[in-house]
Design brief:
43% of the residues lie in helices and 23% in strands. With 65 residues, it is an alpha+beta fold.
Length: 65
């Protein structure tokens, strides 16, 4: 897993986080946030679920016929 952290607006301390990971790594990260319902961790959990769902819609394993 690799993270790139950069500032968009240093005066407001706004950050954009880019995470490059496999679907399995995203699933593991999401699962570690299962019992957390506090903001902003809940938004991260929701975002990870959305990324995984979209990836599963676009990419799927080949049929083994």
């Amino acid at each position: 897993m690799r993270c790139i952290l950069c500032t968009d607006k240093p005066e407001e301390i706004t950050f954009r986080l880019t995470i490059v990971a496999t679907a399995k790594e995203f699933e593991q990260l999401r699962d570690q946030l299962t019992d957390i319902s506090a903001h902003p961790a809940s938004q991260l959990k929701y975002g990870l679920t959305e990324v995984i769902t979209q990836a599963r819609k676009i990419f799927w394993p080949r049929d083994t016929d």
